[in-house]
Amino acid sequence: ETVLTQSPGTLSLSPGERATLSCRASESFSSSYLAWYQQKPGQAPRLLIYAASSRATGIPDRFSGSGSGTDFTLTISRLETEDFAVYYCQRNGVIKAFGQGTKVEIK
Amino acid sequence: EVQLVESGGGLVQPGGSLRLSCTASGFDFKNYWMTWVRQAPGKGLEWVANIKGDESAESYVDSVKGRFTISRDNAKNSLYLQMNTLRVEDTAIYYCARDNSQFDYWGQGTLVTVSS
């Protein structure tokens, strides 16, 4: 069973700054199986990135994903106020798993 | 426009049963895998189960195997989760999502509370 570990647990940044979120897997898998989601309080999660680096429909280009093997990264180039939220990575496959989440909070 | 609407949540005692429903619209339901994901209060996301469009395959997280059953009715564009022998730790918001390998559309969720 693949375990996804996200770091840091909380990221305190100011609007306009760059956010770099990490997702590390316990075993290597195809980057086509890695997705990122954003969740705001009281809302359902929203798909941001799939196949490690492809933006979902309607997602701004300040969001980008990269990585392969066991190490994946979500980057938000310049934080907007609406980007402060919790972010989850997720592995697809027969059995699907989420990381524990990274909270991006206003500093 | 793709829409997913869950229903059926509520308060149930430990050991009890509940059936969740998810009604889909805006896409060809029978051609897609569908998934249930849950989120305990203040916690992260946990994938629960999924089912293939033609009902020929389904998978479950270990913690619900033998207790939960996922099913669908393609004629009604509906997804279901039958939850039996519920435990306090099953308390969560349950989301249905379209499973296009990644979960590209989500419902707003239905709250299940297991408590005596």
Task: Offer a quick outline of the entry.
The complex is a heterodimer of chains A (107) and B (116). By secondary structure, chain A is an all-beta fold.
Q: Can you walk through the features of this model?
A:
The complex is a heterodimer of chains A (107) and B (116). With 107 residues, chain A is mainly β. In chain A, the strands form two sheets. In chain A, strands 2, 4, 5, 6, 8, 9 and 10 form a seven-stranded mixed sheet that branches. In chain A, strands 1-3-7 form a three-stranded antiparallel sheet, with no helix packed on it. Chain B has 116 residues and is mostly beta strands. In chain B, 0% of the residues lie in helices and 55% in strands. Chain B is built from no helices and eleven strands. The radius of gyration of chain B is 13 Å and the shape is globular. At the A-B interface, strand 4, strand 5 and strand 9 of A face strand 5 and strand 10 of B.
Distance between the ends of chain B? 40 Å
**Beta-strand fraction estimate of chain A:** over 45%
Biggest interface, chains and residues, is: A-B, 24 and 19 residues
| Silhouette of chain B | globular
- Let me know the average pLDDT of chain A: 96
Helix content of chain A: under 10%
Low-confidence stretches of chain B: none
Derived from helix and strand composition plus strand pairing, the structural class of chain A reads: mainly beta
What class would the helix/strand composition of chain B place it in?
mainly beta
Task: Tally the beta strands of chain A.
Answer: 10
| Strand segment count of chain B | 11
